[in-house]
Amino acid sequence: MNLYHFQMIDPTGARRDLKSLRLADIGAIWREIDDLTSDQARGGQIRVTNEAGGIVVLVGVSTARSLQARGLAARAAA
């Protein structure tokens, strides 16, 4: 399992660390993103990085919600 760091980037560019988790795969990352979008204001972005600092996912809150509503994030991760 790899360590991933979740950050919220608000519309002004300010960054806030949300959590760091050890997760098994990209599907688990998208499930966490789905959970995070319910608490976030539109216009922000969620950034997920790996242990080396590389960006794994960078997605807007509105886009993540749209993917979630269509079930596309779960299918893309499968």
Question: Mind explaining what this structure looks like?
Answer:
With 78 residues, this protein is α+β, with helices and mostly antiparallel strands. It has one domain (2-77). The protein contains three helices and four strands. The protein has a four-stranded antiparallel β-sheet with strand order 2-1-3-4. It is globular.
Task: Supply database-style keywords.
78 residues, alpha+beta, four-stranded antiparallel β-sheet, 3 helices, 36% helix, globular
What is the 3D form? Answer: globular
Mean residue pLDDT = 88
Helix run count: 3
Give the strand content. 35-45%
- Proportion in helices: 25-40%
Q: What is the radius of gyration?
A: 12 Å
For the termini, the CA-CA separation is 17 Å
Structure classification = alpha+beta
Runs in which pLDDT lies below 50 for 5 or more consecutive residues are none
| Secondary-structure element order, N to C | EEHEEHH
Strand order of the largest sheet: 2-1-3-4
The count of domains is 1
Number of strands: 4
Major beta-sheet overview: 4 strands, antiparallel
